[in-house]
Amino acid sequence: MALLIPENPVGIIGYGAYIPRYRIPAAEIARVWHDEGGGVPVKEKAVPGPDEDTITMSIEAARNALQRAEIDPLLLRAVWIGSESHPYAVKPSGTVVAEAIGADTAISAADFEFACKAGTEALIAGMGMVGSKMAQYVLAIGMDTAQGKPGDVLEYTAAAGGAAFILGTADESLAVIEAAFSFVSDTPDFWRRQSEKYPEHSQRFTGEPAYFHHISNSVNAFLEESGTKPEDYQHVVFHQPNSKFPQKIAKDLGFSKEQISTGLLAPIIGNTYSGAALLGLSAVLDIAKPGDRILVASFGSGAGSDAFSLRVTERITARAKMAPTTQQYIQRRTEIDYAIYARYRDKYVLK
Amino acid sequence: METPRHWRLKKQRYALVGEECPHCKAKIFPPRDVCPECGLEAKTVYHFSGKGEVYSYTSLTDAPAGFQASAPYAIALVKLEEGPIVTAQLTDIGNEPVKIGMPVEMVTRKLRDDGDERGMIIYGYKFRPVLS
Fold first, then answer.
1. pLDDT tens by residue, A235-271
2. What is the pLDDT of residue B1?
3. Chain center to CA of A186
4. Cβ pair A118, A82 in contact under 8 A
5. How many structural domains comprise chain B?
6. What residues of B are in contact with residue A349 (Cβ under 8 Å)?
7. What is the ipTM of this complex?
8. Which of A87, A100, A324 sits opposite B15 (nearest CB)?
9. What is the CA radius of gyration of chain A?
10. Whole domain around residue B110: which residue ranges?
11. Rounded to a whole number, what is the distance in Å from the CA of A194 to chain B's nearest CA?
């Protein structure tokens, strides 16, 4: 199948990360649930403060993206947020974010949901909007405050964070998006019903039939159709639900440890769901050099994977410095114990 | 529930949008359409940078209704770099002690739920120690 390539070339003109400052070590979660026997899937995970949610975190990431893009927010024609933790079941996150960043009212504001790949969905939809010249600029965000049931294996990794991207024409870009490819199938690996607080997962579906199957299909098709090889890319970012999966898929597909090292953040911040692949991309852009090629492959349960490649332009040098870097947010760290974590994440029943 | 009031105040609350006096150039927050410096009409929209410093502060452990979930927390008078002093909650302090003169920046956060978990979520400005 052919790649998704807009008629008019599109790229990223500004990007911004956000990671909340609180961290709970996986060893602390293991202590509470007497689960010290095996290893833990990450070292620690990022936890949102009690006054943070997908909307507030998206606002900060979007403000960082606007600082780098140096555009008037009134020129945005869409504000799209991909998340599986929108604060309201019904009431868009996009309108609040648009209002807070000073966007116009003549915009499309929609919330995307596709488990962990909702953010790249928004980004690829934005490519179409800008590439068809329906919009000069589009803001696409992937952001989550992921829920993990106490004691469940996902509690170790379900983290908070994400990144925002402003798309514009390729000639204004700090990184041109060369092409994209999406691969999806009806796969029941992970879900959350309408009124449920915590997701369910089918243990055996998580790895091979879901994560590995979809990413290898999207990436292999992308490489074949684009006529590129793993060694053509300086940096590669995979969706990262834990430390192990992205390292294994990289090896399986022929990518080296060096290629994934900059964008592999899950070991120290956990799985930021819709934010994960996009935060990895923002960490790569922070240090990328003009001419670098980057391959990104997200994964969302349910299930699907979006692969896309970027070519970094000379504009990166000036713009990377214009807002806080991903690593600055990672280094801003306050460790909390399980009791505070439980309070911040509303685990206590008060009435 | 006070939905109309929250809706009316959203611009100033989400992003510190105030006014600038076209006559004496004073920056005004909260917006009040009349310049407190020269007394003339002032309706020009002005976006504050969000940068400022702690002018004074206090800590609350016995929080008012609606804010108990965040207690204990610090409330500060923040002197914005453009001049006005605003009252706001401090957030993301971590283990750093609050000090007078501490540089802070505006962030948009959840202030509270209007009513209970079924009510609307109220967002607005708070200040945190400057990130970089």
1. 999 999 999 999 999 999 999 999 999 999 999 999 9
2. 63
3. 21
4. yes
5. 1
6. none
7. 0.96
8. A100
9. 19
10. 3-129
11. 16
